[in-house]
Amino acid sequence: MAEQPLLLVDVDGVLNPTGHRPGDFRTYDSVVDGTLYKVRLNRAHGDWLLALARDTGSALVWATTWEDAANDWIGPRLGLPELPVIPMPPLAVPAQGRDFGEMFKTPHVADYAAGRPFVWFDDAVSAADEDYLRARSDVGDFLLVEVAAESGLTREDVAQAGEWLAGLGGGT
After folding, report:
1. pLDDT tens-digit profile of 117-133?
2. Is residue 42 within 8 Å of 152, Cβ to Cβ?
3. Quick one: which of 35, 118, 135, 161 has the most CB atoms within 10 Å?
4. Predicted TM-score (pTM) of this structure
């Protein structure tokens, strides 16, 4: 494969599920820009993502409104190294003025990927985001993995990404 694929990872609803998660989830306090957030994280998620990146030759990237704070508060608790961050400034265009009704992060993701293949783990991706990405001539192959926000990232989500990436040419 000519270009290293990207594994784009959201935090809230993906690594920090909205529902009650017993077992290996721990609750942490995180302070971002003076605001206290309680996040529930599972160290296994970091292991799964690192293995997926290693096995597919992909690069992990934060695609979250946590932006750089994900490297301070989320990554270390999951055993992740410092990752590149897709800047997520709010777009000036209101939701009703977007091309397909896509979420505000989608144009930022498209610009960052710049033609590289990518898998995007997010709880808020939809058909509108897929339509937007497919309509852009500068977007390469991609897979949107809509993670169930209540449960967060699952082994099945990771396996789906791994299978898709293997279909790109083995990940190397």
Report:
1. 999 999 999 999 999 99
2. yes
3. 118
4. 0.91
